[in-house]
Amino acid sequence: MAKKDDNDSQNAINLDSLSLEQLSNLKTQEEQRLQMNTQRYAQLRAVAAKLSAARTALNEIPARGSEGREILVPLTPSLYAPGKIRDPNKVMVELGTGFYVEKTNKDAVSFLERKLKLVDANSQNIMKLVQSSNYNLESITMAMQGKMLEIRARQEGMRYQASQEKA
Prior knowledge:
By secondary structure, this protein is of the alpha+beta class. The protein contains 2 helices and 6 strands; from the N terminus they run E-E-H-E-E-E-E-H. It has helices at about 20-60, 105-165, and strands at about 1-5, 10-15, 70-75, 80-85, 90-95, 100-105. It has a two-stranded antiparallel sheet. Strands 3-4 form a two-stranded antiparallel ribbon.
């Protein structure tokens, strides 16, 4: 039996009761679900890497003696502009969707760590869905193979019966 959703066992499907065509459709749906969740997982891991890099960068800014220090400010992933640190203890943090807020380094690191924990928790949940989809795909594939063996056995039986009737 395959489960459509790990959290809802009432959605379990009796694979043995499905036709080969229905199993094929179910397999296609499960492959799409697996691909979508794998992409989500990759996106979350990319976000986690960016948050970790931001946290590391904040920890590398010395609290004192950095005023006036020249840095490169990223404008895009491949375009930088020269700049100077005005106050090493204050940074602008993106809250999301283009909203920024000024925070102290300590508060910014705390904010990034909370976000990182949230992203990690979501990543773990998505990984469970990926594992569930893999299990479901294996179950569906095994059920399809069983159905094909059944069909072949039935065909062989019919051939044998036809040859016995001729004799």
